[in-house]
Structures are given as structure tokens and as C-alpha cells.
């Protein structure tokens, strides 16, 4: 098992530890191979530079080991170009799970959104972001996704108006 550390947003690191390591910060995060993030990390692995690896960050992950392809003993470095990709994919996973959890709690159990956010944060041990931030991002997402019906435009028939 070969690990490396990456610097990502703090709430995403807390989410990963909570979801994939059982809220245990001492264990590195192991992503299941059925998730897209596993394959993204595997694609972004590169040979360690000669200047030496920079192993600092707030998330320690186990590198993917596959029977064919890149050997993790050689390809064990995630460079600067990999960090935005990992950040983006983890943010998508986080947001998707949070938003659908909130909708499920509201529609099936009639639990308000604010209590759902609090339960989600408590489940995964997220403390670095406030509930208001997640609340606002949920409503921005909902505004983009929910298609509002346009009112039908009234046909202006001047003959009817003259009567």
C-alpha cells in the first residue's frame, strides 16, 4: 500500500475521511475502484520528480494498484496539475451526495433542509464549513436545475380589444 498526500479544500478532506475512512484521520483514504475519482487519480499519477516528492497536504490517499498499467512504485506522485482535477471531482461527489440527501430527507421524511445539512455534517465529521455555505450552494444548484415554467405569452389580438 503506497500513499501520498494532496492539498485540497478542507471540507472535502473531512468528507473523504468521514466517508471512506470511517472518520478516522489516522488511516489513509482508500477510494473504491468503482468510483470515478479512483480512475482520475490513476490517470494523473506520474513519476516522482528528481527534486524529491513534496508530501504535504491535508488528505492522505492510497494510490491505486492495478494489475496492468502504471506501477505504483514508480508512478507515485500527484503533481500540481492533478490537484484541481481531484478537487473538482471530489466537490462533485460531495455536492451530489449532500443535495440528494437533502431532497430525500425533505420528500420522504419531511425533515427541513437545515436539519438535513446538520445531520450530513455530523455524519461525516465536517467542521470547517458553515451550514449557511452549504445551504446557499444548495439553493444555487436548485435554481439552476429546477426549470421554471414560463407563463404563456398572451396573444395580442387587437380586434378583441376593440370590441
Report on this structure:
- The chain contains six helices and two strands, in the order βααβαααα.
- It has 163 residues and is mainly alpha-helical.
- The protein has one domain.
- The chain has a two-stranded antiparallel sheet with strand order 1-2.
- The longest helix has 28 residues, at 82-109.
- The protein starts with a strand and ends with a helix.
- 20% of the residues are buried.
- The mean pLDDT is 88.
Key features of this structure:
single chain; 163 residues; mainly alpha; two-stranded antiparallel ribbon; 6 helices; 2 strands; 49% helix
Report the C-alpha radius of gyration, rounded: 23 Å
Widest sheet: strand order?
1-2
Largest sheet, described in full? 2 strands, antiparallel
Average of per-residue pLDDT values:
88
Measured by DSSP, the beta-strand proportion falls in under 5%
Quaternary: single chain
Inertia-based shape: elongated
Low-confidence stretches: none
What is the total domain count? 1
Helical amount among residues, as a percent range?
Answer: 40-55%
What structural class do helix, strand and pairing data support? mainly alpha
Order of helices and strands: EHHEHHHH
The CA-CA distance between the termini, in Å, is 84 Å
Number of strand elements: 2
Number of helices: 6
Amino acid at each position: 500500500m503506497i500513499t501520498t498526500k494532496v492539498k485540497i479544500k478542507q471540507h472535502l478532506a473531512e468528507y473523504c475521511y468521514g466517508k471512506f475512512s470511517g472518520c478516522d484521520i489516522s488511516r489513509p483514504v482508500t477510494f473504491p475502484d468503482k468510483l470515478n475519482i479512483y480512475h482520475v487519480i490513476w490517470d494523473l499519477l506520474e513519476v516522482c520528480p528528481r527534486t524529491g516528492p513534496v508530501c504535504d497536504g491535508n488528505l492522505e490517499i492510497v494510490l491505486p494498484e492495478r494489475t496492468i498499467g502504471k506501477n505504483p512504485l514508480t508512478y507515485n506522485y500527484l503533481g500540481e496539475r492533478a490537484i484541481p482535477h481531484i478537487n473538482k471531482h471530489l466537490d462533485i461527489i460531495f455536492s451530489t451526495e449532500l443535495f440528494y440527501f437533502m431532497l430525500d430527507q425533505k420528500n420522504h421524511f419531511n425533515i427541513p433542509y437545515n436539519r438535513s445539512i446538520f445531520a450530513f455534517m455530523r455524519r461525516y465529521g465536517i467542521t470547517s464549513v458553515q451550514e449557511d455555505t452549504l445551504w446557499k450552494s444548495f439553493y444555487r444548484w436548485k435554481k439552476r436545475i429546477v426549470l421554471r415554467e414560463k407563463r404563456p405569452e398572451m396573444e395580442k389580438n387587437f380586434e378583441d380589444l376593440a370590441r
